[in-house]
Amino acid sequence: MTRSSRTPFPEGFLWGGAVAANQVEGAFDEDGKGLSTQDTMPKGLLTPPTEGSTPDNLKRVAIDFYHRYPEDVALFAEMGFKTFRTSIAWSRIFPNGDDAEPNEAGLAYYDRLFDELAKYGIEPLVTLSHYETPLNIARSYGGWTNRKVVDLFERYVRTVFTRYKGKVKYWLTFNEINSVLHAPYMSGGIPTPREELSESDLYQAIHHELVASARATRIAHEIDPENKVGCMVIAIPMYPYTTNPDDVVKTMKENWQNNYFTDVHARGAYPAYLNKYFAERGISITLEPGDEEELTNTVDFISFSYYMSTTISADDDKQSEAGNIITGVKNPYLPESEWGWQIDPQGLRIVLNQLWERYGLPLFVVENGLGANDELVTGDDGVKTVRDDYRIAYLHDHIEQMGAAIEDGVRLLGYTTWGCIDCVSASTAQMSKRYGFIYVDRNDDGSGTLERYRKDSFFWYKKVIETNGLVD
Ligand code: BGP
Fold first, then answer.
1. Domain of residue 140, CATH code
2. Closest alpha carbon to 174 in 50, 88, 99
3. Ligand 1: residues whose CB is within 6 Å?
4. What is the Å distance from ligand 1's center to 426 Cα?
5. Is the pTM of this model over 0.90?
6. 1 assigned to some structural domain
7. Could you list the residue range(s) of the whole structural domain that residue 84 is in?
8. Residue 25 catalytic?
9. Between β-strands 452-454 and 438-440, what pairing exists: parallel, antiparallel or unpaired?
10. Which atom of ligand 1 is nearest to the CA of 427?
11. Is 367 labeled as catalytic in the residue annotation?
């Protein structure tokens, strides 16, 4: 790295990679798994299914991680991973979400996976809810708009905290919880189309998730005081588009919409600005007795995904850019990925500092990476590979900025790159939007052998880990 001879990354820094069950496992109906919302989502859309829409069949097989995990974990170990982030598919454990008893075959699968990781000393980092909800919860309960789902989630989390006690220590509650406002079906299992939901419906659903998250945090600590629980949000630094104070005030308000998720998780109460925001927009939500008390069970750390920054303009005519669910106006100073996500390594340093200053809690970057088209080529040694210098450059620059943030004083626990092995994209349901160090031979039309190949970035990241962040 250009940072010269010393590395600011602390001893024990958790280098690794991240995936989610529905994007890698496949085996969508094996060993008693129930259907989840993901099994019905129309291809490439974040919306609920409609009459005649085609479900995204690519995820039903995905990269077949369900069966091939030993080979994949061995590859992660070869890179030197200290941690691996994945999620538990709720519908493997409770196929309908409201079953009285868990599905033993589903529980046994994650036992095998965690045992495999333990063989190599890789610490699991487990998301409890990553963009999939048992389908029955969406259909019969209306997803997270229904208060009863808080209790169903409790049954699920108690089961997995108890079962995996001693095997899993790091837990995340809801993946990118602030996405519910933008993608209510994918994120909150809410089957009503977004345009038919009122803001009160959405904020009520969020309230239920926040209570469920705080309750999960309390229960995790009760079951094993060694457990460390984090919230997980989309971190997206928002810059005013111009120095016009109108843009600056609009940026402040947009930031409220994001900050309140971490404020509740880290401070244990709704912030004052939210009351004003609710009053201005006629939003009202119901809090049940005991909710405020429950929310005081705050998280041990804050985790987030970071892909891009955005800009905010008070001028409504400005076009919205492409991006990771939350979007604003294109920044004229930044390059972008092939999918139009703007690349801003310094934004990572900024957001790390902002979160650290605001909460003083340890931070964890649990997603970051470049989705790109890769070409499989045959190397001089006859072995197939991908010459992904563009991915190396992206990750290098972001790691460098994490180092700068650590030097600024931020306490950072670890870094898991998104899609460390190629997987199905969440937003576009493509295989061709690849993030991995490991290439998986599968195409958008479902063809391919599912063979795995090490990309150039595989060997580069191995060196990053070996040197604890010191590599060019
Ligand atoms: C985040 C999700 C992931 C993931 C990633 C990349 O929003 O938590 O599930 O997929 O973004 O996004 P995409 O797959 O749409 O490129």
1. 3.20.20.80
2. 88
3. 20, 23, 131, 175-176, 305, 324-325, 367, 371, 418, 425-428, 433
4. 5
5. yes
6. no
7. 14-466
8. no
9. antiparallel
10. 15
11. yes
